[in-house]
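Predict both folds.
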Amino acid sequence: MNHMTTEIQNKFPKTSPARLILFAGHAGTGKTTLAKKALPIIIDKTGQDFFFLDKDTVYGQYSAAVMNLLTGNPNDRDSPFYLNNLRDLEYSGLLDIVRENLALNINVLLVGPFSREIQSGKIFNPKALGIPENTHIQIAWIDLGDEEAKKRMEKRADPRDEWKLAHWNEYLKRRVEPPTHTHIHRFDNSDANKLDFENDFNALINALIT
């Protein structure tokens, strides 16, 4: 745990462990939409407030400006240049915000792919994240088939998807399955109109707050 976290904890001692709930998954799966749908339900069920933190909201305009300066393409979020030079800095900044809130005993609902951190196991390790060791960590991994994700990306026409769509076969290599872990709860978001969707979604929320 870093010095900033320890100092904040000493000033604001905890009464109960804070929660970190992450909505993760690959592009086009509906992470943000489902996280926003889940947030008021989680608040109602737990009786606790949450800080909502979305990677695209925090770094969208900043990353666009940086990539435009460096490469002339403000929409690039997937090229080797972005992945090797900017990606980890963005995630580090997000985790700094998470760390500061958890140290203040403020629950965090975080939205972002976090595929590297999940594959490496870092996301399950409070010490590696630099967050309080008793933090309650749960992850909703949003599943969606590759072709359906592609259709949704084409339909939403977000400029940040242009590189993915133009280099689809290369991008598919990064759409890997998450590891099996007790803190990962997978949710099929392929059909919001299916009969059991709401029941499945409520089951997901119950798993995240248990």
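Second protein follows, with its predicted structure tokens after the sequence.
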Amino acid sequence: MEKQRNKKGFLPIGVRIIGIIIAVLAAAYGLYAGMGNSTGNFDGEMQIFALDVGQGDSFFIISPNGKTMLIDSGESSNSKQIEQFIREKGVRQLDVVIGSHTHSDHVGSMPYLLDAFDVGKYVMSEAGLETRIQKRINAVLEEKDIPCSYVWAGDVIDWDSDCKVTVLSPVPEFDEYSKTDWNEWSLIIRAEYANHSMIFTGDATVRSEQAAMLNNEKYLFDADVLKVPHHGSTTSSSLGFLEAVSPEYAIISVGKGNSYGHPDYDTIQKLKQVNAEIYRTDELGTINIVFSADDIKITY
């Protein structure tokens, strides 16, 4: 049956209004779907979450423009926890995912999360490619046709035009890295926004720290916040490195009562020596670091 029209051949005013509302809602949904995320604008803030994944690392970052980044993913047992946290932020797409190195306490949940979300690209160091967990990651990358990049010191990761993400380690053509200890190949990354910066270190060792400092500009290590390497182990956090970074805040991602004795007493003392305020996930749970134009706020 033909819909009733008025004398001029137009639909009644009520029908036209409903049609306009439907069209507006459809357009809004289309824009939302195209964005990939519903994180929106954070009013000039970069949000960094040090997730409490026990004895492991996982950092989720949202840029001022709603771009997303995941650095490491804890063990495989953390997969649902991390997925839920990210989805509760209204996120459906991970623009950049970074695996600092191929140990399961850092990339154990990667196969699950890479499959669970739309992913723009995966970034890693060119080491540990034959490990069991990396082969599982590679399988998902290939199945979903996710671009994968190997990065080295000096590379800049394309993420958000208002932020800069610079790779400080591993150093290309540095031939003293261990051929079996993938910690030494950990990505050291500097993320900057609004004159604030944070350095992420994976499980970088003293050798990694020294090589990075010798092969990058000194100013790149001066940062407000440091992700303390290797959960506060004695194998990392040389005093020279801590003095170069001179962090106002130190974040230690570590499991409560872990069998390794992390963080080590000496590491804590060195952090105090450089006057860093220490925040630990085993004591505080998930930690939120916020970079704004004016200051840095840390909550938990």
